[in-house]
Input
Amino acid sequence: MRIATWNVNSVNARLETVVRWFEAARPDVACLQEIKCIDEKFPAEAFERLGYNIAVHGQKTYNGVALLSKPPLEDVRRGLPLLPGSGDEVDEQARYVEALVSGPTPVRVASIYLPNGNPVATEKFAYKLAWMRRLHRHAQDLLSWEEPFALMGDYNVIPEPRDAEHPDKWTDDALFQPESRAAFRALKNLGLTEAYLQADGAPGAYTFWDYQAGAWQRNNGIRIDHALLSPQAADRLLGVSIHRDVRGWDKPSDHVPLVIELDV
Output
């Protein structure tokens, strides 16, 4: 089973590019982020023609996530559970969708668009850390089920200095703050495996290049798109690939697809 994650930076604006990649790569399951449309405006027909079942958690103009799967999707969850006693009553930002992908060995897959958090000294950074605490708690619950699962998406976290071409340029950014990185480590320390590190781990494997200042041409990239696997999924990991060339296509997203392969 090939499972992809890709922040497409507006699925409708880049539909031709996105469909081109789907036709070439043919993932069994795909997690999309930053689709930037409500559910009704998601271009479902373009993907249904390719044989995909679809679960969308959209939002007008901003955010939005989707799951596309050739096998049927079951037990769909839209949004992370709120933490008891946190004072939060609702989360209006569409950043999480999860479903069980049917098959001989069912795999639970989540598409995650973690908050950016900038500027750091604002409520946006506090929201990022609070969202990560909710994800941590939900991952604990998922682990208790002892099933294969993959938490995939744009985490907006640069885990280590080696995950940026110029780490010194990111010291004031929410993506590289000690608190963000610590929360990401804590998530992994629950017992999750970062797929790229297990399968390859070589530095310089970036998944994002900004549109500004010739970042792509200078390879001024960062690695912020990740796949975290439960032990039951990590045992089945066959490989990981980053489709770097897609960044050089016409009308590209600033992210590129990350694809894992599981033996299921």
About this structure: The mean pLDDT is 96.
